[in-house]
Amino acid sequence: MSKSSLPPIDPTKTASGIALDPQTLERVIPESRRSDGSVRKQLKIRPGFTPQEDVRRFRGTKQTQADANALPKGHIIGWIPPSSKEADSSKPLSKSAKKNAKRREKKVSDKKADEPVKDNWEDDDETIAAAPQKNEEPTKNNGAQSTDTAESLSSKMEKLDVR
Predict the structure, then answer these.
(1) CA dist 39 to 13, 31, 34, Å?
(2) Of 16, 60, 127, 149, which cross-links 51 as Cys (Cβ 3.0–4.6 Å)?
(3) pLDDT tens series, the chain, 163 aa
(4) In 3-state terms, what secondary structure has residue 129?
């Protein structure tokens, strides 16, 4: 016999405990063991009989259609789940990627340290004299800079992820 033609070891049961006997193909309540250790014998169910537990609640065609079209529980209209960046972040970073991450962190910390602090927070009209700008060398690869900003943006979005 092939594996697919064998009956299931534990046949599926209805709410009332009725299962299909794999040998006779009749509906039966299978034998079970009581708490004292004795065994209840298998009971045959008459053809056409449906116990009250298995009777389904009547649903009209419009009700069933509305249920089929209903959104899953907790679904928000227009919300798209974020892409799975978590799987990518679990991979270890290469040596150059680690260096680039350190450079980015240092650059951000340097920018924060260079910002002048207002003396008077209540006067928004005052403008602070701009600190002299450092002459930085123009970056040769603008594409790498745009990917850095995209990565920082995606990391910020992951932090804002609502669960």
Answers:
(1) 19, 7, 6
(2) 16
(3) 555 667 677 778 888 889 988 888 899 998 999 999 999 999 999 999 999 988 988 999 999 999 888 888 888 888 887 776 655 556 788 999 999 999 999 998 888 877 777 777 776 655 555 455 555 555 555 555 566 788 888 888 887 776 6
(4) coil
Largest CA distance in the chain: 94
Amino acid at 46: R
Is 135 within 8 Å of 129 (Cβ atoms)?
no
* Residues in CB range of 52: below 8 A, 6 or more apart: 16
Q: How many residues does the chain have?
A: 163
Question: Cβ contacts of residue 11 below 8 Å, gap of 6+?
Answer: 19, 20, 21, 22, 30
